Amino acid sequence: MTGVLPDMLPPRGDRRLLGGGRRLDVAEHLARFGPLPWAAAPGLADLAHRAGLRGRGGAGFPFGRKLAAVAAGRSRPVVVVNGCEGEPLSRKDHALMDLSPHLILDGAMLCAAALDADDIVLCVHRGDPAGALLRAAAAERHREPIVASVVEVPDRYVASEESSLVNFINTGTARPTSKPPRPFERGVRGCPTLISNVETFAHLALIARFGPDWFRDQGTADSPGTALMTMGGAVRRPGVYELALGVTVEEAVATAGGTGLAPQAVLIGGYAGGWLPLPRAGAVRLEHAALRAAGASLGVASLTVLPATACGIVETARIAAYLAGESARQCGPCMFGLPSVADDLRILAAGVGRDRALRDRLRRRMTLLAGRGACGHPDGFTRLLDSALRTFGDDVRDHLHDRPCRGSLLRPVIPVPRAGQPGTGGWR
Amino acid sequence: MTDHVLRVDPIRCTARGLCAELAPELITLDEWGYPVLTASPVPAALAADVRRAVTACPTLALRLDRIP
Prior knowledge:
The structure holds two protein chains of two kinds. Chain A is α/β, with parallel strands linked by helices. Chain A folds into three domains: 9-216, NADH-ubiquinone oxidoreductase 51kDa subunit (Rossmann fold), CATH 3.40.50; 229-307, Ubiquitin-like (UB roll) (Roll), CATH 3.10.20; 312-409, NADH-ubiquinone oxidoreductase 51kDa subunit, iron-sulphur binding domain (de novo design (two linked rop proteins), Up-down Bundle). Chain A has 16 helices and nine strands. Chain A has helices at residues 26-33, 44-51, 63-71, 92-99, 101-115, 129-140, 162-171, 198-210, 212-216, 249-255, 288-293, 312-325, 332-350, 356-367, 377-391, 393-400; strands spanning 78-82, 119-125, 147-153, 193-197, 226-233, 239-244, 263-268, 274-277, 302-307. Chain A has a five-stranded mixed sheet, with helices on both faces. Chain A has a four-stranded parallel sheet with strand order 3-2-1-4, with helices on both faces. Mean pLDDT of chain A is 93; it is low at 1-6. Chain B has a single domain (4-66), classed as 2-Layer Sandwich (Alpha-Beta Plaits), CATH 3.30.70. In chain B, a hairpin with a 5-residue loop joins strand 2 (27-29) and strand 3 (35-37). Chains A and B meet through helix 13 of A and loops of B.
C-alpha cells in the first residue's frame, strides 16, 4: 500500500461513521477521509443505487431512487437534512451529529451539487444542542460553494415527518400535510425537495469516496452497509453501536454486553416499531426484509430489550398513550382512533374483570386505523399494538381474564416522555 | 369506471358522512363518523353514485383517482 496515506484508507470493518469516538474538526475530518469528491456528484444517484443505500430515517426507501425522483423535477431543488430524531428510543442521530458532523455535511453538499441546489437546510429539534454543533460545523465549511443553515423544529413526535418539515419551513407549522404532493414533487418553496435522515447523508459521503463495492462489504444484499443502532432496555451496556446490517438480534444484544436480566422480548425500531419475543427471535436478522417478514420493522434501528420481569402490555399501553397524545389531530382516524385504542389498552393493562367486549373492540378498532392518516403515525401505532398482542399473547389472555401478570405491578422499564398537550398548540 | 379508485384527503375530511349515504356499497363510516373506503376499483354500475358522493362532499375531501 505504498503511496497511499494510511489515514486515507477506507474505514475497515463495521466502524465507519463514528470514527475514534471523538469529534473531528474539518481539518482532521479531511485528513481522515480525504477531500470531498465533487467529481462524484453528477453520478451520485447511480452510485447510491449501486451501493444499495437505503434511507436511515425508518422507512428504508432506496436513496438512489429518491435522489433521481428529485432530480427529475422542473425547478431547482432544495436539500433537507433531518436530524430531529423524533423517536425517543433512538440516540443514533445525536451520536452521529456529535461525533461526525462533517460526514453529514459532506453527503448533503454532494447531493446539493448533484441536484444543482443552492441551499441545504439542517433540521434539529428546538433547543437541541445538536443545533449549535451543526451550525459550528457548517461555519467551518464557509469556503464551500453551498451554504447550510440550521432550522429548529418543534419537539413533537410527528414534527419531523417529511411533509411536516416542509410545512414548517414553508409556513411555520410543523404538522404533516396530505399526499400528494410528496416533498420530492413539491416541497420547500414549492420546489422538489430531497429529505433524508442525517445518517443517510453520512453513508453517502463515504460511498462517494470509497465506492459502492466497499459499502457492500458490510451488510446484506437487501440492506447493504452498516447502521447506527441504539441498544437500550435490559442490556448491560446501553448506547449507540455501529453494526453491519444483517447481524442477528442476539449478536446485536451481545455487542451491548448481553442482557442483565433474563429477556422476554425486544422492541425494534422504537415506538412505531414492533415487538419480537426473546429468546425465540434471537436469530432474526436486522435488515429490512427479514424484519418485515417477522412482523416487525427496522425503523430507526433501535433495540430495546424488555426483561422477563416486566409486563409487555403495561409497557405498550404507556407508549400507546404517548403516541395518541402526539397525534397532530388533523385526521379523524388518528385524532379519535388512537386515544380510543390507547384507552382500551390501558384498561387491558389494568386488568378488566373478564371483559370479552374489550378484546373484540380492540381488534375491530385496530384493523381500521392503518393507512387512514395523512402521515404514517396511525400505521406505526397499529404496528406496535399488533406486535404487542402477538408477542405478549399469554399475558393478554391473563389480563383479559382479570389475572394481570406480576410484572404489571412493578415499575415500568421503558422510558416514555410526556406527550404534548392535546390540541393544536406546540406545532409552531 | 373500473380504472378509478376512491380516495379521501384525511385532513380535509370532517366526517359529515354524506358520502356513505350516497355510495353505501363502497363507503362505510367508522364509529367516529369518518369514511372507510373500499380499496378496489369502482365498479361501472356504481359510477353514478360515486360521482354524486364526490360532488356532494362539503369539504372536497373525497375524490376519484385514476389507477396508475
